[in-house]
Design brief:
three-stranded antiparallel β-sheet
Amino acid sequence: MFTYTHPVRLHFRRWKWELWRHGRSCGAEDDGTANNICIMALMAISYMVVFCTLPFSLCFIIKVVQEYERAVIFRMGRLLPGPAKGPGVFFILPCIDTFRTVDLRTVSFDVPPQEILSKDSVTIAVDAVVYSRVSNPTISITNVENYKRSTELLAQTTLRNILGTKSLGEILSDREQISHSIQSILDEATDPWGVKVERVEVKDVRLPVQLQRAMAAEAEASREARAKVIAAEGERNASRALKEAADVIAESPSALQLRYLQTLSAISAEKNSTIIFPLPIEMMAQWTK
């Protein structure tokens, strides 16, 4: 449906829209200017209070942070430009400045045992330990309410998600690869929070009692099977060696004589009351024929 609008009325509407938009922008600029003026006035008052109460005011304006700490300063609720303060001495204005201290050392926390259903439908309990540190103090304060608690909860969910895609054999044998995968995912997720995940280690994998018994029985059966195979191979090798020795003795009659004499020497070396009278091997050969 077509609606005709008079050109004068259309121009009047455009003029009202431009006037409203200009007034809104001017109002925003006026609010910002008024806010800045208020902040400057409060800063001037704070400086005057500090100068008038010297040297007692030094106890309130001088702050110290350790080598492993950084201080994030807020002035009237706004973050001060620049990096976090520290280590050493820094100054704040009383009444209008607040600061929060962030520890930059590597911290570790235990991931509680998680009940996980593996890819092959086996329920196991897995716990881990995570090592992390703050890489950006300012972001760790401004972008997340509690970066420690958030990192712990994210580690729990990531551990369940990763191990849920693995079979029981992979979980037991590929712990290093699983730990590296969890560390990469956590590090990428916590980067907007200013947290660096340095290492993740899977501590323990607890299996049900019935599954432990079944795996023990399977391992015992496998070891018995390998032992029987090794014994059979030994018997076969011994039979081959005896056959080769018999062939050598059959080819040379003197070899049988030497073997006979070695056996007599070994028997006579033992302390016994049996007296053996050796017969000539040639006589035994005639009886054999």
